[in-house]
Amino acid sequence: MTSSLNERLAELQQRAARLQQITTEALSVPARPAEAGDRTGAITVRLSADGLPDSIRLESGWRQSARAGALASAVQEAAQLAMTKRMAAWHADLEQSGRSLDPSRGPRTRSAAPPAGARTTTPPAFATAEPASALAGRTTGALIEEVLSLVDSMDRPGAEPFTPPRGRGTAAQDKVTITLSEHALLSCSIDPDWTEKQPDQAVQSALSAALSAAKTALARNQQTVRASSGAQGRPELLALELLSRLGKG
């Protein structure tokens, strides 16, 4: 019984180390802010570098391009399109750093630099390979699958299941509601009857207020999760950020 438990703990430690290797290497390349509008042009969402909405902006003439009942969907679509742009830029930065997820690209090589002024006849075949990357030759789908598998296996014997923090904010007497994860907008709801009766400024103010309230709630819940037993430094927290950059958050 003791041997079986020790084996299980050893396996968990190995998986945690693997997850830490993948996430640390990938997240060493920072993500950029991104901005996109929905297809109707009614809403523009700007994401900060952490993937959370920095602003949700009503565009002029939005009532002509989107129905009041479709405004919440427009917010979610704009956020998703901004996330897609953010992900594409991050992939490009990964590739430039030599950590490409394209399996057709092998590891980069570099020749050892000779002393200043020295002559060298070292043939290219003796170029030294850079340290093996945990990301080299991996498709995005394969990486997502492995990270999800590792996270699923991280439940420790006797430990509480890991629940990622979220934040929910409301405004205008709950007519507008926004829910955030640590790295993405999860949902948005807007009462269409209320929206039709409000001036643009009131709708914009409610969107901004709900977003601000959701961020405040998220920050509070993040502190609670990190202060709870075993949550400090758990690799799942880094994995969630990586998955968000891979478009699976």
Provide structural commentary:
By secondary structure, the protein is of the alpha+beta class. It has one domain. 46% of the residues lie in helices and 14% in strands. It contains seven helices and eight strands. The strands form three sheets. It has a three-stranded antiparallel sheet. Strands 6-7-8 form a three-stranded antiparallel sheet. Strand 6 and strand 7 form a beta hairpin. Helix 1 crosses helix 7 and helix 4 packs antiparallel against helix 7. The longest helix is centred in the C-terminal third of the chain and has 28 residues. The radius of gyration is 23 Å and the shape is globular.
Structure summarized in a few sentences:
With 249 residues, the chain is α+β, with helices and mostly antiparallel strands. The chain has helices at 2-27, 62-65, 71-96, 140-152, 192-197, 200-227, 235-245; strands at residues 34-37, 43-47, 53-58, 109-110, 128-129, 167-171, 176-180, 185-190. It has one domain.
**Tally of separate helices:** 7
Q: What is the element string, with H for helices and E for strands? A: HEEEHHEEHEEEHHH
Task: State the separation between the terminal residues, measured CA to CA.
Answer: 38 Å
Portion in strands: 5-15%
Report the C-alpha radius of gyration, rounded: 23 Å
Q: What structural category characterises the helix and strand content? A: alpha+beta
Number of domains: 1
Label the overall shape. Answer: globular
Helix content, binned percent: 40-55%
**Main beta sheet: strand number and arrangement?**
3 strands, antiparallel
In order across it, which strands form the biggest sheet? Answer: 1-2-3
Low-confidence stretches: 102-115, 118-132
**What integer is the average pLDDT?**
75
